[in-house]
Amino acid sequence: MNDFKQQVLDILKEDARRTTAQIATMLGVAEEQVIVAVAEMEADHVIVKYAAVVNWSKVDEEKVTALIEVQITPERGRGFDAIAERIYLYPEVKSVYLMSGAYDLLVEIEGKNLKEAASFVSNKLSPIDAVLSTKTHFILKKYKQDGIIFEDTEDDHRMLISP
């Protein structure tokens, strides 16, 4: 990937609502050059999706997010890929990562409530033959995601004291 495409990606990552005209102006190039670069990256699946980052704590809809550490036995010939694919095909699963360290996969799931998330682990994930163990962590509060801080910070109202 060339530097130009990397710059376009950086701008889109920061704010995917930016138009090709805005990006062209920011980079000092013709808009057509940006249009071509974006189209190529979409065709090559470098750009997979444009999405909003939502602060769900500000929305009335209840959601539970869990991170599950999963230890598995790799499948002969396909390693971790076959088990990871079986897991990521469940609609509750938002992300699956192959990890180094004490466990093999990190699975992020979303449920309507604690019971639904627990049910996924006990009825869908744990019964998979290759799964040796799971450890579930429920997210209680998000402070920062994808570089965006969710906390409403208060201004410091203390008086300045100078010597």
- Kindly provide the radius of gyration, computed on alpha-carbon positions and rounded to a whole number of angstroms: 21 Å
Q: Count of DSSP helices? A: 5
Sheet with most strands: strand arrangement: 2-3-1-4
H/E element string? HHHEHEEHEEE
Straight-line distance between termini: 55 Å
What number is the mean pLDDT?
91
Architecture of the largest domain, CATH level 2?
2-Layer Sandwich
Write the CATH homologous superfamily of the largest domain. Lrp/AsnC effector binding domain/regulation of amino acid metabolism (RAM) domain
β content, as a range? 15-25%
Shape: extended
Give me the secondary-structure category. alpha+beta
Tell me the total number of β-strands.
6
Sketch the major β-sheet.
4 strands, antiparallel
CATH topology of the largest domain: Alpha-Beta Plaits
In terms of per-residue confidence, which ranges show pLDDT below 50 for 5 or more consecutive residues? none
Counting structural domains, the number is 2
Q: Which features characterize this protein?
A:
2 domains; 163 residues; Lrp/AsnC family transcriptional regulator; Tscrpt_reg_AsnC-like; Arc Repressor Mutant, subunit A; Dimeric_a/b-barrel; Alpha-Beta Plaits; 4-stranded antiparallel sheet; alpha+beta; 5 helices; 33% helix; WH_DNA-bd_sf
